[in-house]
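USER:
Make up one protein:

ASSISTANT:
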Amino acid sequence: MPVTHLIVGRPGSGRTRTVEQLIATEKLTSGPTVTVWGIEPTRPGRLRGPDRTADADQAVQLLTEAAAIAGRRLGNGSGREYEPTAAEPRIQVVIDGAEPLLRDTEAAGLLQFLVVVGRTTGVETVLAVTDTGLDTWPIALRRRFHDGAVTQLTDPRTA
């Protein structure tokens, strides 16, 4: 899976289910060398599978902690890609319903940092959103997502 992944789909398209499948796959294939941190700013308690969870009030705190770990790993690294271990696993930050965080300047800045240094530090991001419009997304962050790292879901009721 790419270090950054964007899942886009309207309500009812299966965004949360897709996120849960990604979490399950990561845990199955990586075992103890991955830990999943989930953030649910809009509907807390729905997402199954994360090792840690945060709601809207705790989101910036969790992102700050992830950024601190990434910064420490960046400072300790030799410029090579991070090699996870059970003692220092790769962190996958999964945000289901990320729009409120993308509108928050502090949270969006932390996300941008994590997206930029993700590969080198072993801190990955998965964002699930309904909209990638200019009014929601910081342009610098939106440019970080490219073809191959975007899953576009369609509403099964209209397909």
